[in-house]
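Work Package 4 report. The design task specified in the project plan requires that, given a folded chain encoded as structure tokens, an amino acid be chosen for each position. We show below one input record used in the internal validation round.
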């Protein structure tokens, strides 16, 4: 058991895990991210551990089992508070997995109340009167209604959460949050007295999140996107410091692997291509009928002579119509797995060619790539854009610097800017 560990976090995908870890580091915590539930005790001297699961789109029963395994390990390391982290777009299905996992963690921790808010104002995710906005539009008008795995057609989080949980869901609105810690605690007491077990919390600014933070001190379980993390380290007496984000010096070749089909990633792919850097598209249809291994070898043969001159991009990013066409032939899950497997094999091959600075875009793609590379642990470093830090995986020849970018995150020039930040 480590004496320094304050916060134990469970994230439902790999990019979401680094997004959370990034906000904790920026607020002064030393953080390590594990890939899956570790099988041995924590060796690092850190303030927070983020256990990255790939549980967002699997069955609810399996997501619960993995999350409870993570909880047991975090408790054994001495975590003082548990944080269940999901996406800032709250994306899930009517059956879960956010609600079922939240309930299972509450039961295991013996607590009758927690909060829920995916608010992350730095990335344009705000909650107002219980409704989630992405930028200036409601979530269901943001493009998330077309998500291939978890389409979001309702922006009312109280309604979305109530469909996923047996507990009563309530709201802590913006007027209460604006009044600060005492008012928030008073509202929590009122909701508990009314039998509410989960409260959606409004937040439209970082100031709201900093006001919310002190009211969460001592709460056994917090559930949120990564935004709430900025208000928690102060509860443990920690302040921002550059030391928290220090990584080893970067070496080796550079590459980008992108599997996200989000609007933001489509724009990032277009920007990278417009700079004249080499980019190669993998058409999902080309991977069908057992052609995946041959496609991967063709990609690596293309990349090998180009890497010495700077970063290359390999992408399967496509417009929603193209994605739906392949899904119609193979089914949603099979189409996604086919692309993930191919991109993970490409990432593994690129590292074999000497790539030691790797940008990966897309949550499912990031999970597949990290597993293919055999990465068990990541040290969290400096931020590139809100929610996206550089990380370092120890290993031979200095290890690999890697960033796992959620599909919707990052500015248009992210794929080029990332390497500048690391340099």
């Amino acid at each position: 058991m480590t004496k320094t560990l304050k916060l134990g976090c469970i994230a439902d995908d790999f990019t979401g895990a680094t997004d959370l870890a990034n906000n904790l580091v920026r607020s002064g915590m030393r953080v390590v991210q594990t890939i899956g539930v570790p099988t041995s005790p924590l060796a690092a001297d850190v303030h927070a551990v983020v256990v990255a699961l790939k549980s967002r789109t699997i069955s609810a029963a399996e997501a619960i089992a993995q999350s409870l395994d993570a909880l047991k390990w975090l408790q054994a390391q001495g975590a003082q508070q548990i944080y269940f982290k999901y996406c800032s777009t709250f994306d899930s299905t009517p059956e879960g997995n956010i609600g079922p996992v939240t309930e299972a963690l509450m039961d295991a921790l013996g607590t009758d109340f927690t909060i829920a808010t995916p608010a992350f104002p730095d990335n344009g995710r705000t909650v107002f009167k219980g409704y989630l906005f992405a930028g200036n539009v409601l979530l269901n008008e943001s493009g998330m209604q077309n998500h291939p795995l978890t389409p979001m057609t309702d922006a009312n989080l109280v309604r979305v959460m109530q469909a996923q949980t047996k507990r009563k869901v309530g709201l802590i609105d913006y007027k209460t949050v604006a009044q600060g810690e005492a008012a928030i605690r008073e509202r929590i007491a009122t909701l508990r007295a009314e039998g509410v077990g989960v409260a959606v919390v409004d937040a439209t600014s970082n100031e709201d999140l900093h006001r919310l933070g002190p009211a969460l001190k001592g709460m056994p379980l917090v559930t949120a996107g990564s935004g709430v993390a900025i208000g928690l380290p102060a509860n443990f007496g920690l302040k921002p410091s550059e030391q928290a984000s220090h990584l080893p010096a970067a070496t080796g070749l550079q590459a980008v692997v992108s599997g996200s089909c989000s609007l933001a990633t489509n724009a990032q792919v277009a920007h990278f291509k417009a700079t004249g850097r080499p980019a190669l598209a993998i058409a999902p249809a080309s991977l069908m009928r057992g052609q995946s291994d041959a496609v991967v070898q063709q990609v690596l043969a293309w990349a090998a002579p180009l890497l010495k001159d700077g970063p290359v991009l390999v992408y399967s990013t496509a417009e929603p119509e193209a994605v739906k066409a392949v899904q119609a032939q193979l089914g949603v899950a099979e189409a996604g797995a086919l692309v993930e497997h191919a991109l993970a094999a490409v990432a593994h091959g690129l590292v074999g060619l000497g790539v030691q600075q790797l940008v990966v875009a897309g949550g499912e793609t990031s999970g597949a790539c990290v597993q293919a590379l055999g990465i068990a642990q990541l040290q969290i470093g400096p931020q590139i854009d809100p929610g996206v830090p550089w990380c370092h995986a120890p290993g031979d020849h200095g290890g690999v610097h890697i960033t796992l970018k959620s599909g919707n995150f990052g500015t248009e020039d992210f794929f080029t800017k990332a390497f500048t930040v690391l340099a």
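The chain has 13 helices and 18 strands. Validation will be extended to a larger panel in the next phase.
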